[in-house]
Every structure is written in structure tokens, then in C-alpha cells.
Amino acid sequence: MEWKQIPLGPLQTNCYILWNDRNKCLIIDPGAEGEKLVNWLNENKLEPLAILLTHAHFDHIGAVDTVRDTYNIPVYIHENESNWLTDPGLNGSGLFGMGNIQTRPAETVFTSEKTVTIDDFTLALFETPGHSPGSLSYYVQSEGIVFAGDTLFMGSIGRSDLPGGNHEQLLSSIHEHLLTLPEDTRVLPGHGPTTTVGNEMDGNPFLNGF
């Protein structure tokens, strides 16, 4: 499989495309610039199967309906943030003066950790709250990658000062679900460059002493 990081929107939120050798793909966090994203998918002759959301903050959901309607595909989200998609007050767009960003409800709502299979894509679903109450991380063991959303970054961790955030819960999520992965696992965050589990174990100042 192959993957591509595409920063989108004013906050340069990382959207990820994961595709197989049949050019079928999953889309993680289409945050903004829906037409740009659709054009890239079409230019690369990819066939989207689903949209997976790590969480429902406005900068991760802005292009959801454009992509969903273009390809007639389902959206997946955790139940703790399922109502954030339709509510600018919950998803933060109102709080940050970004206008009223909202989408229609998701077709599939996760209620627990599980293994998800879509076509021949298999992802382990981890509940990693702390940045937000419904934050998810998607681990693709066969590829040695984890889509971590805004939970863990290169040299940093996600904010926990937004509504529904919890610092201790965030640290627990990182240590229990992400740092227990093989050290060469590549962490694909919601913003900024990729990193590895090993690099963050060794050098992330926010994780020392926990």
C-alpha cells in the first residue's frame, strides 16, 4: 500500500490518503479545500471507499460533505463526537471565528475499540481521548503506520485546553495505545511532519516523567 499526506486549509491540517494496488483508497480527515482534494484524487485515478475521522474539530471535517457527495461514500466517527459534525458550537468553528463549519451526520458511528475492515484495508481502532473526547487513532499493522490525529506530534502532544479536553487522559492515551506500538511505527499526525514511536519515546519532552 501507499499513502500521501496532503496539508489542507488555513491550519494546514493533514489529510491522508491510503491506497492499495487496485487504486482503491481511504481518506482520513478531509479538513478543507474539498475541490483541491477531489482534483488530486481524480488526477491520481483513485477510487475512495470511505472517510475516516480521527476527531470532529472543524479543521478536520471541512471537506467531508464535498468528498462524500462526490464519491457517494460513508463517513466514520466515534460516538462521543457524532453530534459535533452538525454543531459549530461543538466542533470549534464558532469558537475560533471560522464561520459555521458543519456536515451531515456520519453513516457509521464507532462505540468501542475494534478491528475495522473496509475492502482489503484492515485497521485497528484505538480510542485515544484527551485532545477531544472522541479522538481515535487508526493503526495499520501491515504498513507500520498509525494515523494519530491531534493526539501525538513530532516533539509535542495535542492541545487539551479545548472543550472536552483532558491533559491526564491525553497522556494516558499516548502511553497506553501509541507508545506500546513497535518503535519503528510511523506516526502520521494531524499537523506537521511525521515521526516514529521510537523518536517520541526518546525525545518528546511532553512525555518525559509521565
TrEMBL record:
It holds the Pfam family Lactamase_B. Its cofactor is Zn(2+). The keyword Zinc applies. Residues 12-191 form the Metallo-beta-lactamase domain. The keyword NADP does not apply. Keywords: Hydrolase, Metal-binding, Zinc. InterPro entries: MBL_Glyoxalase_II, Metallo-B-lactamas, RibonucZ/Hydroxyglut_hydro. PANTHER family: HYDROXYACYLGLUTATHIONE HYDROLASE GLOC. This is MBL fold metallo-hydrolase. It comes from Rossellomorea oryzaecorticis.
